[in-house]
């Protein structure tokens, strides 16, 4: 998925219970060129609702579920199969993805987050 620099895109995401969830976000300028993300941090939270500030269902940070390819402007989001196995399903909540460089904080992606239930238990 490609995102423009000054946008906050809305995108529904689906995680499959018991499977590894991955999403790659290309952060680009209005001409499609990658934005240098050197010295940026990132965080993504999944919650029951926008108003529920107490409980994060998923909490990812740089080095713990989020990786950044700085010069390519790529953000990799991963939730392990063990983590998705622990999620209630079926379940729908909300998420957002924030990046930060010094005092500049940008919400670049947001939307609903659905966990689809698995049928097969263990492989």
Indicate the percent of residues in helices: under 10%
CATH superfamily: Immunoglobulins
Number of helices, counting only DSSP H or I runs of 4 residues or more: 1
Number of domains: 1
Secondary structure: number of strands: 10
Order of SSEs, N→C?
EEEEEEEEHEE
Overall outline: globular
Task: Describe this structure in a few short sentences.
By secondary structure, the chain is mainly beta. Helix content is 4%, strand content 54%. A hairpin with a 2-residue loop joins β9 and β10.
Describe this structure in words.
- The chain has 123 residues and is mainly beta.
- It has a single domain, classed as Sandwich (Immunoglobulin-like).
- It has 1 helix and 10 strands, in the order E-E-E-E-E-E-E-E-H-E-E.
- Strands 1, 2, 3, 4, 5, 6, 7, 8, 9 and 10 form a 10-stranded mixed beta sheet that branches.
- A hairpin with a 2-residue loop joins strand 9 (91-101) and strand 10.
- The chain is globular and about 45 Å long.
Give the secondary structure arrangement, pairings included.
Elements: E1 2-4, E2 9-10, E3 13-16, E4 21-28, E5 41-47, E6 56-62, E7 65-69, E8 74-79, H1 81-85, E9 91-101, E10 104-116
Parallel strand pairs: 1-4, 2-10, 3-10, 6-7
Antiparallel strand pairs: 4-8, 5-6, 5-9, 7-8, 9-10
Keywords:
123 residues; Immunoglobulin-like; 10-stranded mixed sheet; 4% helix; globular
